[in-house]
Amino acid sequence: MKFNQFLLAVLGSAVFLLSGCTINQDILFRSGEFYEFADLDDLNKEQTQGYRIAPNDLVTFQLFSNNGERLNQATAGSISSESGGGGQGQMNMNMNRGQQGGMTYLVKPDGLAELPELGNIRLEGLTIEEAEVLLEDAYTSFYNDPYVIIRVTNNRVFVFPGEAGRATVVPLVNMNTSLLEVLAMVGGIGSRGNASNVKLIRKNETGRDVYKMDLSVVEGLDDATMVVQAYDIIYVEPMPQLVRETTESLSPIISLFSTITALWAIVLNQN
Q1: φ/ψ bin of 32: left (φ > 0), alpha (ψ from -120 to 50), beta (otherwise)
Q2: Looking at the predicted structure, is the pLDDT value of residue 198 above 50?
Q3: What average pLDDT score do residues 228-233 get?
């Protein structure tokens, strides 16, 4: 009778501990069995639209004349920071020297950027090409046949290559960077990464779209050449390590069983 009670106690404890054990606990961004992923064909069509400037973007801006000379007043930081008013002095608070020439301006939360001679101008929602055309038109009031080169300098993507401790933030220096290039930058898919289960998570106007692709086959190369966008999340689901994780899950039960057995032996010896 006492042995049966002991056995029931052990089994009850084992069930309790097992209920808190799961295999592959480090999976992020789980999707249910019937989750509806976004259509990859729609994603390929989206590539032609290009990145649209958003609030908090840092935009490096260079202005040139029609003979290729840079117009220094607008792009080389010659604007005075000693202005007593809120105009040019305030402008310099939103301006830093770019690492690759020109000046870098913040697109403020209201979507406006404060640029030399133009003041506040709305860049939010424009592609790079649209913004360049807009600024070229605006600067025709000050210069003959100006042309503008701008780039967004703080865009980045987040990569989880399928192995703990290897998550990486990748700056987008080139706005035409493909998913394959990003994976190459982080050293490829991790040793535990499941190449047949790669997710691209992209922000949209109402939330996020999740795209699923299989990069374990040659046909997946078409998906891998897609152009990533700022703040995309590239997630490679890790494969479970069944032996190690099962052992880790069972070790508390084995330890409990050993402890109870030892206590039971002590009780029997005392009787």
Answers
A1: beta
A2: yes
A3: 90
- Over residues 117-147, the pLDDT tens digits come to 889 999 999 989 999 999 999 998 888 888 8
- Rounded CA separation 196/162 (Å): 11
> Which runs of consecutive H residues, i.e. helices, occur in the chain?
2-18, 40-46, 72-75, 88-92, 128-139, 179-185, 221-224, 242-270
Q: How far is it, in rounded angstroms, from Cα 182 to Cα 64?
A: 32
DSSP state at residue 119: E
Structural domains in the chain? 40-49+155-238 (3.10.560.10), 58-152 (3.30.1950.10)
**Cβ–Cβ < 8 Å for 136, 149:** no
Position with higher pLDDT, 224 vs 269: 224
The pLDDT of 209-233, averaged and rounded, is 89
Which tokens sit at 200?
């691209």
